[in-house]
Amino acid sequence: MITVTKLGLSFLILIFIGSPALYAESHPLGDNRHLFLDQFLIAEMENARIAVNRPERESLVVIADKPWESGGITSYGNVLYDPYAEEYKLYYVPVSWDVEPGFCTAMATSKDGIHWDKPNLGVVEWKGSKDNNIVVWAQREGTVLIDPNAPPEHRFGFVSSEGKTKTRLFTSRDGIHFTLQEGLISSHHSDSQISTFWDDSLEKFVHFFKAYQGDEKWHTDSEIVVGENIPFPQNEKLGRSVARVETEHLGDVWEEPFEVVMARDERDPQAMDLYTNAAIQYPWAEAAYFAFPTPYYHYNEPASRAYLNQPTLDIGGKGNDGVIETQLATSRDGKRWTRYRTPYIPLHRYEDLELKVIHIYPGMVREGEEIVQYYAGYTFTHGDTQVRYKNLGRKLGGIFRVVQRRDGFVSVDFDYEGGELITEPFTFEGDSLRVNLNTSSAGEARLAILDEEGKEIPGYSLEECRIINGDYLDTTVAWKDGQSDVSGLRGKSVRLKFDCRGTKLYSFQFGNSND
Predict the structure, then answer these.
(1) What's the pLDDT at 385?
(2) Which of 34, 40, 195, 393 is deepest in the core (most CB within 10 A)?
(3) To the nearest whole number, what is the mean pLDDT of the chain?
(4) Where do the H-state alpha helices sit in 173-326?
C-alpha cells in the first residue's frame, strides 16, 4: 500500500501483467489446473499471444413482463444454484413507475437455467397484493449468496447498498424471506452492484464495490488506499472505480480505508470510467479470479463530444449519458488484476434488439463442461430514461444467458504457421498430463517436458510427442508408443514446451490417470 487519501484525490488503476512475486522460483503446481490468465508461468512466447474469448452462445431468457416491471430490468442482480431447493435462483432488479421508490429485488427460478419462472412468493406487498416475486423492497445493489459458515436460519446472505440506509445485511433461511439485520456495515453507498463472495483461499468474504472520484459531490467521504501496483500519477479524476474489502463474516463492518484495485488509466479514452465489476473466485481452478468491469463511455463529457448526448437531452433524458459494455479482468489473488481491453460482451445486436448497455451479473453456474453466465442488456443509453416510458417488455432488452467453454475465458493463441510457449520451472504431482485446447482442423499441438535448464528430457521430447489434433477439454498427452506416464518426473523441477500451430490453448493439469 502506498498512500491513503479521500476519494476526491487522485489515484490510478493497477494494470498488472503477470504475478512473479506471488510464487517461488520453481512454482509448486501440484495437481492444480493452470489457466493462462496472464503472463504468469510463461517464460518465453513466440508467434503466440494471450487472447480474450467471448461467450459462444447467447439467448434472451427473462424480460420485463409484470406490472411491477413496467420500467424494465436494471443492470444489477446475480445468479446462483440452490442445492437445497435443487434449482437456479436469479435475483434481479425490476423498475416500476407506479410506486416509490420504484425499484426492488425480485427472484426468478429455473430447473435448467434456460426457462425461468417468476413465482408468486407472497412476501412483499405491491399495490395491495403479495402475488408477486419480490423478495426485498427498495434494495437494488447487492449480491445474494449462500453463506458456508452460517446457521440454517441465516443460510442466505444479501449485502446491499441503498442511498438512505447505506450498506447493510439481510439474511434468509430459504433465499425468499429476508430479514434486515441490526447494525451498519458501512456508511459508504456503492450506488451500483456489490459483488460479494466467500474466498476459499483466504477463508474470508470479499466485497467489490464502486468508489467514486470526480467533481460531483457524492461518494467523496470514504477513505481509500491505492493498491501498491497502481501507477502514479494520472492527469484526470477517475470517476467510478472498483474498491475491495475483506471481512471475516458477512455482517462485519467494512473497515476503511478501502483498497482500490481497478480503475481507468491512460490507455482508456478520456472521461471513461468503470461502472460495475461482477468479480468472482473461479471455483474450478486454484488461484483464478475473474471480474467483468464495465467501461462507461460518457457522451456528455468532454465538451468535444457533448453532441452525442444531445439526442437524449432533446427527449427529456439525463446529461449523465453514454454507452456501457463488458470487459474481462483476471487475477491470481483477487487483488492484483490484469484488465483486458478487448470487449468480453461488446455492444451488439441480438435479433432485432440493439444493445447499448451491458452488465454481467455476478455468479457462474456449471452445466457439464460449460460455464453459464447472465447479463442485463438495455436497448437504450444510460441517460435515456424516457425510453422506459415509451417501450415495454422485450423492446427494453432483458436478461441474457451466455455460454462459455470451461476455462475458456482466456487462451494462448498460436499462429497458423506455428508458434511456441515455454513455461517457467514448476513441480507437479500425478502420473499424467492433460490439456484443454482446440487445434481446429488444420492445426496441431505437441508438447515436450524440459528440465529446469530448458533441455528436453529423453522420452518426453517434441519429436516423440504424438500430435494432438481436434477440440479437447481434457485430453492426455502421449509420447513414443503412446506412453503417457510422467510419474518418474513427479516432484522434480521441470518446464513445458508447447509447439503448436493454429491452436487455442486454455489450460493444462497434471493428475492421476485413473481420476
Answers:
(1) 77
(2) 195
(3) 91
(4) 310-314
119-131 residues labelled b (16+ CB within 10 A) or e (exposed): eebebbebeeeee
The answer to whether 103 touches 167, Cβ cutoff 8 Å, is no
Distance CA 327, CA 340 (A): 7
Beta-sheet strands, E only, within 299-418: 322-324, 326-331, 337-345, 348-350, 353-355, 357-360, 365-367, 370-378, 397-405, 410-414
For residue 410, is pLDDT > 50?
yes
First and final C-alpha spacing in the chain: 43
- Number of Cβ within a 10 Å radius of residue 280: 25
Pairing verdict, β 348-350 and 353-355: antiparallel
pLDDT per residue over 174-203, tens digit each? 999 999 999 999 999 999 999 999 999 999
Which DSSP helix (H) or strand (E) runs through 388? helix 387-390
Candidates 279, 494, 443, 380; CA nearest to 71 is 380
Q: Is-contact 430 31, C-beta < 8 A? A: yes
The CA–CA distances, whole Å, from 226 to 16, 74, 99, 241, 293 equal 14, 30, 41, 11, 18
Answer left, alpha or beta for residue 185, where phi above 0 means left and psi between -120 and 50 means alpha: alpha
Cell of 509: 493439469
**Residue indicated by cell numbers 481446429:** 440
As a whole number of Å, the CA-based R_g of the chain is: 24
Determine the pLDDT at residue 19.
Answer: 40
Sorted by sequence, the CB contacts under 8 Å of residue 341 that are 6+ apart come out as 267, 268, 327
Spatial separation of the C-alpha atoms in residues 75 and 394, rounded to whole Å: 15
- For residue 415, the 8-state DSSP code is P
Looking at residue 226, what is its pLDDT? 72
Residue 310, pLDDT > 80, answer yes
**Spatial separation of the C-alpha atoms in residues 456 and 450, rounded to whole Å:** 4
The 3-state DSSP class for residue 185 equals coil
Q: Which phi and psi angles does 24 have, rounded to 5°?
A: -70, 175
pLDDT band at residue 233 using 50, 70 and 90 as cut-offs:
low
How many Å apart are CA 151 and CA 51, to the nearest integer? 43
| 8 A C-beta contact, residue 134 and residue 176 | no
